[in-house]
Task: inverse folding
């Protein structure tokens, strides 16, 4: 009976998201504005980075600004291959800004300060765009209240267990939570850093709060996308999903990096959501507040269900354990239909997806207990005495670094 009541509550919460999510439609206005692409680059796979640069340049963008860490010689060499001398007929689209300051936030700030367009796309260096992304993401900005726009995202070449698992989570997110938040109040909780488009004047206005974020007295280093989205919403602007604009990114193909990435994301979510819920501004967006609370309690309820299964197995109640396992399979498959329609063969991954759901619930609770920890986990940077520093010393920078828009 307790498990049945809990299941009824969880399904009610899911339907409260699923119904508006099913009503979502991409925004089509024909609106267009000049768009600058800003990319912080650090230890990216050169082959993927090259594909990504090409995908941005074939879009209708005003400029691509690559803020490249001076220690990343491989990516600097890749970027230099795309530099072309400017002419009156064809101005230079690509600019390179070398930086010796560690950390993604400062790179983003440098990029949008250098941008010349009213719209700025903040993009990860491994994110590959479809050919029409730049045109589609401009359309929601016809509404002057819209301050930020997100895209639909999937895993680039989702081969192997961990990338395919990440693809599961992405489809669930963009066909459920984010779509519903767009319909119910135009307040998306996080415009993912893989590709997020903002009005440049908003970025300039919130820059100081972004660069000086602290949580429980500790300087924040990661979570830049959640922070930017929260500051945009707190300032009274709207954030929406443009699901017709598609991008693809790489994801870890091993358990260790996959787990560390999830821990970092979970800590970022706890910090941002707790600040929003107790800070008060999120209650101006009731549906967004509901989804934040729902996500906060979901981990506890999911682990309760797993605990009930353990009790059934220990007590040799195989009938109860069998019914519960079958219910998990049916319910999780139903909630994953948008992904299974696109990749039907992933139905065979459902048992693993279910088990990983329990592990991720435990990870979220671990992240809550260690929420003050500020480590990137997948990058050689950390916060020491309130300052973002490298955990390995940078090499000596040669004189005559590449200047913005110049040839090597």
Result:
């Amino acid at each position: 009976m307790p498990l049945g009541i809990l299941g009824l509550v969880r399904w009610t919460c899911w339907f409260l998201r699923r119904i508006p999510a099913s009503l979502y439609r991409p925004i089509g206005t024909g609106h267009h504005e000049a768009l600058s692409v800003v990319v912080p680059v650090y230890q990216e796979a050169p082959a993927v980075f090259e594909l990504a640069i090409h995908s941005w340049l074939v879009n209708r963008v005003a400029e691509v600004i690559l803020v490249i860490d001076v220690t990343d010689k491989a990516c600097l060499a890749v970027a230099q291959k795309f530099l072309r001398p400017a002419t009156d007929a064809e101005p230079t689209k690509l600019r390179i800004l070398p930086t010796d300051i560690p950390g993604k936030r400062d790179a983003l700030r440098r990029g949008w300060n250098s941008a010349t367009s009213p719209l700025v796309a903040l993009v990860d260096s491994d994110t590959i765009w479809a050919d029409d992304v730049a045109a589609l993401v401009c359309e929601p900005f016809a509404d002057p209240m819209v301050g930020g726009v997100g895209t639909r995202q999937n895993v680039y070449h989702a081969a192997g267990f961990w990338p395919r698992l990440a693809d599961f989570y992405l489809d669930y997110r963009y066909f459920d939570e984010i779509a519903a938040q767009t319909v119910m109040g135009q307040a998306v909780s996080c415009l993912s850093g893989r590709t997020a488009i903002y009005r440049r004047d908003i970025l300039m206005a919130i820059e100081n709060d972004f660069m000086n974020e602290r949580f429980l007295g500790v300087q924040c280093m990661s979570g830049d996308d959640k922070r930017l989205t929260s500051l945009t919403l707190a300032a009274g602007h709207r954030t929406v999903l443009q699901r017709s604009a598609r991008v693809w990114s790489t994801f870890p193909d091993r358990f260790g990096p996959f787990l560390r990435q999830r821990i970092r994301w979970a800590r970022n979510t706890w910090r941002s959501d707790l600040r929003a819920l107790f800070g008060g501004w999120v209650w101006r967006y009731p549906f967004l507040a509901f989804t934040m609370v729902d996500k906060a309690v979901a981990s506890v309820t999911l682990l309760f269900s797993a605990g009930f299964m353990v009790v059934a197995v220990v007590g040799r109640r195989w009938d109860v354990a069998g019914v519960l396992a079958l219910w998990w399979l049916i319910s999780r498959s139903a909630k994953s239909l948008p992904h299974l329609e696109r990749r039907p063969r992933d139905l065979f991954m459902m048992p693993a997806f279910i088990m990983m759901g329990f592990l991720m619930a435990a990870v979220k609770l671990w992240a809550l207990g260690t929420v003050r920890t500020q480590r990137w986990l997948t990058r050689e940077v950390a916060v020491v005495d309130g300052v973002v520093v490298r955990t390995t010393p940078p090499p000596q920078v040669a004189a005559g670094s590449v200047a913005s828009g110049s040839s090597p």
In short: The longest strand covers residues 238-249. The two ends are 70 Å apart (CA to CA).
